[in-house]
Please model this.
Amino acid sequence: MRIHTYAGGGDVQTHPDVAPGAPLRECIVVEVDELVYRVGDEAALDIEQTVFALFGEEPGHVIRHHCREIAVTVSYAGQDQKFSVHPAEHVKRLQKRAAKAFQLDAATSADLAMRLPGATTDLVASYPIGAYVPRGTCAVTVDLIHVTRPQG
Model:
């Protein structure tokens, strides 16, 4: 089985060949203050369970994180919106919430992406937002930007 692990500060690892009967703790190192979550789910996982019991036959996506909640500031067109999110929340879900908070219609939000301030690469929509939070903090600021700009 394949297990993808994320951690604060952008550490992403793929474990391509994990035995289904192996406990999850065998593929990830969990620090004293961290919990492990399935990406997209707020419930902490029991790392003593087998990967098959946790994920069935599907690849597993987990994040280990020291925060239980993250303060996210989203900037768009000179305005800020603040959100309190779980570290396992997908970037794409946060992006949808931000578009709604900024009252952007479907046409306007079709080409949106999120980036860290000053970055030139988009946050990966399927990653958990906690992967972009630096170790030692429980807050992050992101820019909501249009990937394509209207011409003419």
Observations:
- The radius of gyration is 17 Å.
- The chain is about 15% helix and 30% strand.
- Strands lie at 3-7, 11-15, 35-38, 60-65, 70-76, 79-85, 112-115, 139-146.
- The chain has a mean pLDDT of 93.
